Structure prediction request, 344 residues.
Amino acid sequence: MKINIAIDGPASSGKTTIGKKLSEKLEYQLIDSGVFYRYFAKKFYLDNIIQINEIYLFKDEMLNNPFYHLKEIEHVNTQFYQDLTISQRASEIAKVPEIRSIINEIIQIITKKKGFVVLGRDATTKILPDAKIKLILDVEREAKIQQSSQLNNLTELEIIGKVLSDILKRDFDAYELILEAKKVATIINTSNLSIEQVLAKIFRHVYWYNFKESSSKSNIEPTVEELIEYKNWPITNYVSDKAFIHIFSNLEKRYEFISNLLEFNQKCLENYEHIERDVLPRNRQDDLFRDAQVWRKNVLNGPKCSARFQISRLEELLKDLEYEIDEFYEKNQEKNFEQKNNNK
Prediction:
């Protein structure tokens, strides 16, 4: 069963990149609300006047043939993505409540059939408040500046003058929207994560949702082509993540088990490092020095790296579980509160 996924977040948090990769993996349709604003800025902002009547006519046309117009919007956006004038006009259009309402309505009608990843500043609150999975991609400001400067090949002065001011302005404009979104969505900080790591976090939420819905096997499984591309660690992680969910459906028991497993791997790493540091000969004149170095490289390094990797991964799992447990208790408190009010 397909669902809708809404992704929100501040400027330069990776929404577009992650959204594209996620929709490809799930074979979902991607819709970026920001693309609509840039399209409207190009097509319906003439002589410094927003052609609101033309926008209403376009809305009717689009709903008659939505996927044709989505391709057209994407095509226009690709052509004028770097156009500063279009971007400025799009920002002005985005401040008009009537136009925001039109764009939100278009996306809501198109996504009724499910199977969409929707990106936008208010995707989790105004556009798709009923999305089954709602995420905020957050990022520290330093990471945003670095990302934007690398993308546009800018000098230090240009970074200070252009990138920083642009990010600050966009963050300021979206401040209240992001605050509202954080109340209803799961937050993923992307600052120090690779694209693959962010996607892995999102897929855990997708798998968990499907498990809760079906109480059995997840509906979203890798294809044969994807499975045979997995190396040893990806397939191990995929299988163990599913095992955790199936064996420990109780969140607190799962948290306790993973905490113990983390401690176990930390002890293993301590022992590996002790052998490397204190047991193996360090004097090159020692007869066993060369054999010990070969053994360290060919034998010891494998399990030592494995323990380090597991520690990092288990720490991520615990952080995600903390969010899930907090959300679970918050929802229970809300239900109890509603029940008390109804009983009164």
